[in-house]
Design brief:
The structure is a single chain. The protein has 450 residues and is mainly β. The protein has three domains: 3-140, Porin (Beta Barrel); 146-242, no CATH class; 248-450, no CATH class. Helices cover 6% and strands 50% of the residues. It has helices spanning 3-9, 38-47, 195-198, 400-403, and strands at residues 51-56, 62-68, 76-82, 90-96, 101-105, 112-117, 122-127, 133-140, 146-152, 157-162, 167-173, 176-183, 186-194, 209-215, 222-228, 233-242, 253-258, 264-271, 277-284, 294-301, 305-309, 316-321, 326-331, 337-344, 350-356, 362-366, 371-377, 380-386, 392-399, 414-420, 426-433, 438-447. The strands form four sheets. The protein has an eight-stranded antiparallel β-sheet with strand order 4-3-2-1-8-7-6-5. The protein has an eight-stranded antiparallel β-barrel with strand order 9-10-11-12-13-16-15-14. β31 (426-433) and β32 (438-447) form a beta hairpin. Residues 1-34 have low confidence and may be disordered.
């Protein structure tokens, strides 16, 4: 049991009783300052909604938990785990915890989950249909997050309701889904790319039907499956939304995803004074060696298409640059060819040089002038991401190495090359000479989906 868990164990009930949920007039991570108590205060304030969201180590699965507050000694729990893939995971769990501990078998009978409930985190292990046991981690979510049942009509209209009564309304047009989530804490608008179309899944998402989905905080990511998920019989139809379309991207900055992996990637397209252009790409999954991916590409481009070999010499990438973004194929050292897609991005996104000091404070700057300043405490970071125009995006996120209980600590004092998603949704990086092709094993892996 960690020091943090021992200190918080006595206040477990706060997570499922009595605390006020987020509201438009209350504190939020959009205005919280990173003081010595701000991290715990914000997590405690979020926990009042009774909704926790997170993920499963080394996978693309999202985990959402809704708590029932009626019995403090045996809190009810409804849990949904999904990866938004045609033949992937879609497991529903339901039952009552025994105090601060729980163990459930899924409705399909193919998965089990067990863990510990704390005031500001719920974590444990999950065994999915592949038989491998992995760590999972969730944090209080709020801000429109939760488990939603969404009906998609023949006309492309989406109508959804979460287990806590929040509403989702949207409409799909080709590869884009635009809409909003309306909850007690506010209205969260989104315009996302449909990953099933952008990444060439075997099933196109958003077909007419009913879906059970996980929606992350402020509707930044939505994924789920059709069929009778709660009855243990999910279908192949899916929803997989991410890569928000922004109205004012930073010129030359793109961020994206790689099909079938936990890898993310960022691009910089630099136009020099003589009109020539250089394209740089950074691919990583924030996972430790030997399985973790780390690739850096940088070459001149003379037209809309390109074909590169990484500076590490063990990966290749080809693609096309369009107004929608950058798309193509990536071959990592495992030899599998995978599609990727990256969108024009702003809100502080970019490739940064990050310094982590002896107090594990993270400070960094991108080539475009965005800045990062984060305070680290007990596996949580809080601070500010500032875009090149000076607009601030306060952050509250988890250190994935701490959350997923990796064998070693990361975000250690060092100099890193890291890429940052819009609004700091995730920050992945490595120390060492990444740009020269010799990155080291020290990792930054921060995620604020929960």
């Amino acid at each position: 049991m960690t020091w943090l868990r021992r200190c918080r164990a006595a206040s477990v009930v706060l997570a499922i009783t009595g605390l006020p949920a987020c509201s438009d007039s209350g504190p939020s991570d959009e205005d919280a300052a990173p003081s010595s108590t701000a991290i715990d205060d914000r997590l405690a304030e979020l926990s009042g909604a009774g909704i926790f969201v997170g993920g499963v180590a080394f996978t693309g699965n999202l985990v959402a938990i809704h708590f029932d507050r009626t019995d403090e000694d045996a809190p009810g729990m409804r849990v949904f785990v999904a990866d938004g893939l045609p033949d992937g995971n879609a497991e529903w769990f339901e039952g009552a915890a025994s105090g601060d501990r729980f163990r459930f078998t899924s409705a399909s009978g193919r998965a089990t989950i067990e863990g510990v409930i704390e005031a500001t985190e719920t974590d444990g292990t999950i065994t999915l249909a592949d038989g491998e046991t992995r760590n999972f981690f969730t944090r209080p979510a709020g801000d429109g997050a939760g488990i939603f049942e969404i009906t998609v009509g023949q006309d492309g209209a989406w109508d959804g309701t979460s287990l806590d009564g929040s509403k989702l309304n949207a409409h799909q047009t080709g590869p884009f889904v635009e809409g909003e989530v309306l909850s007690n804490s506010g209205r969260y608008r989104f315009r996302h790319n449909d990953l099933s179309r952008r990444l060439g899944y075997s099933v196109q998402g958003g077909a007419p039907g009913t879906y059970l989905t996980v929606v992350t905080r402020q509707a930044t990511e939505i994924q789920g499956r059709g069929g009778d998920v709660r009855g243990g019989r999910p279908g192949r139809d899916l929803i997989a939304l991410d890569l928000s379309v922004e109205g004012d991207p930073t010129p030359g900055v793109f961020h994206g995803r790689v099909a079938g992996t936990t890898d993310r990637l960022n691009f910089e397209l630099e136009t020099k004074q003589d009109g020539s252009r250089v394209l740089r790409s950074y691919v990583s999954d924030s996972e430790p060696e030997p399985a973790g991916d780390l690739e850096w590409f940088a070459e001149a481009v003379t037209g809309p298409t390109f074909s590169f070999t990484s500076k590490m010499g063990d990966a290749t990438m080809n693609g096309t640059i369009t107004d929608d973004g950058i798309a193509g194929e990536l071959t990592l050292p495992d030899g599998v060819i995978r599609r990727y897609f990256a969108v024009p991005s702003g809100q502080g996104a970019g490739i940064f040089t990050v310094e982590v000091d002896q107090d594990r404070r993270h400070t960094g700057t991108s080539a475009q002038g965005a800045k990062l300043d984060l305070r680290y405490e007990d596996g949580t970071v809080m601070g500010t991401l500032t875009d090149p125009e000076g607009k601030e995006f306060p952050m509250l996120g988890a250190d994935l190495a701490h959350a997923f209980r990796y064998d070693a600590q990361y975000s250690e004092p060092d100099t890193y090359t890291a890429f940052v998603a819009p609004r700091g949704r995730y920050i992945y990086g490595r120390s060492g000479d990444v740009r020269g092709g010799t990155g080291s094993t020290n990792i930054i892996g921060l995620d604020k989906k929960c």
